[in-house]
Specification:
heterodimer; A: mainly beta; seven-stranded mixed beta sheet; B: 112 residues; mainly beta; five-stranded antiparallel beta sheet; 11 strands; globular
Chain lengths: 114, 112
């Protein structure tokens, strides 16, 4: 089956620890994205990557880091520098070849930091 | 900076009612506007609108874009409890690239 997978579904961490969220896609999409969603709010862009070995900061990149070593994978690290890391994290991908912007989303990871 | 504003914030209706959700946007060099439905987890794609005045329809859902007034509406007729969700509106930037700016969403609850 083609799609985007994120793991784990739920993640609990202590304050001060770095944590890495996984995102994998087998849709052969060039572009991948990370969004953060807080309760009752829309999605905000953290980082995006339009091609392997390249990525750009989104609107709220502070305290986060990413890598894009393979086309299929775009892991997100939430560092201890992120002041309010508890949130729902969504990964998405889109085919760069299209002129439009339809994105396909993974099921999300809910991160709780105490 | 691109901006998307959705209204109302939340809405409670009864099954069978018709609802209209609003999305206004500000973006340089508009390319498209997208609607997503988010139930529990991943948003699922509903519509992409690029041309003004042309209605996109899928069953009981329809959407239309007004590029002059910079807004879009999403209509749901004969609502069902399964329509309960957060509806998100988003626009890509005017230059190249597919990252999206999302509105805050409208939370719709349909009561039996």
């Amino acid at each position: 089956d083609g799609g985007i997978t994120q793991s784990p579904k739920y993640l609990f961490r202590k304050e001060g620890q770095n944590v890495t969220l996984s995102c994998e896609q087998n849709l052969n999409h060039d572009a991948m994205y990370w969004y953060r969603q807080d309760p009752g709010q829309g999605l905000r862009l953290i980082y995006y990557s339009q091609i392997v070995n390249d990525f750009q900061k989104g609107d709220i990149a502070e305290g986060y880091s990413v890598s894009r070593e393979k086309k299929e994978s775009f892991p997100l690290t939430v560092t201890s520098a992120q002041k309010n890391p508890t949130a729902f994290y969504l990964c998405a991908s889109s085919p760069q070849s299209t002129g439009y912007a339809e994105q396909y989303f993974g099921p999300g990871t809910r991160l709780t930091v105490t | 900076e691109d901006k998307v504003v959705q209204s109302p914030l939340s809405l409670v209706v009864h099954e069978g009612d018709t609802v209209t959700l609003n999305c206004s946007y500000e973006v340089t060099n508009f390319r498209s506007l997208l609607w997503y439905k988010q139930e529990k987890k991943a948003p699922t794609f509903l519509f992409m609108l690029t041309s003004s005045g042309i209605e996109k329809k899928s069953g009981r859902l329809s959407s239309i874009l007004d590029k002059k007034e910079l807004f879009s509406i999403l209509n749901i007729t004969a609502t069902q409890t399964g329509d309960s969700a957060v509806y998100l509106c988003a626009v890509p930037p005017g230059n190249a690239g597919n990252m999206l700016t999302f509105g805050g969403g409208t939370r719709l609850m349909v009561k039996p």
